[in-house]
Design goal:
Order of helices and strands: HEEH
Number of domains: 1
Low-confidence stretches: none
Helix content: 10-25%
Pfam families: NUDIX
Shape: globular
Largest sheet: 2 strands, antiparallel
Number of helices: 2
Keywords: Hydrolase
GO molecular function, one term: hydrolase activity
InterPro entries: NUDIX_hydrolase-like_dom_sf (IPR015797), NUDIX_hydrolase_CS (IPR020084), NUDIX_hydrolase_dom (IPR000086)
Distance between the termini: 22 Å
Radius of gyration: 14 Å
Protein name: Nudix hydrolase family protein
Number of strands: 2
Structural class: alpha+beta
């Protein structure tokens, strides 16, 4: 969470000379202090929805899965909170994250 009232998944903007996975690996290191290799990720889907809290724009999430259950997540100064939330707490999540979770629940995408 970054000074918002809703939770997003870890990640961020792609910088020059980066692809999706390079950006994700960098953001996970910056935000949660975990280092993963490209081989550990599985592409899930892309989701576009309202860019919370800026409801005037949209956001595109390129979503990947990796098992991080054996990692200790350490919050960096870039974010204000870390939580592992169950699907039932979707009301606490940004619209694009809710859209992704709905696709997973319906079996449209698989993680």
């Amino acid at each position: 969470m970054r000074n918002n009232e809703k939770y997003y998944l870890p990640g961020g903007k792609i910088e020059a000379n980066e692809n999706n996975l390079d950006a994700l690996i960098r953001e996970l290191k910056e935000e949660l202090n975990i280092k993963l290799s490209k081989e550990t990720f599985k592409f899930v889907c892309s989701v576009e929805d309202v860019a919370y809290p800026d409801n005037q724009n949209s956001v595109l999430l390129n979503c990947y899965y990796s098992d991080i259950s054996n990692y200790d997540l350490i919050k960096s100064n870039e974010i204000t909170d870390i939580k592992m939330l169950p699907f039932e707490d979707k009301h606490l999540m940004a619209p694009a994250v809710v859209k992704l979770l709905n696709l997973i629940e319906k079996g449209v995408v698989d993680v």
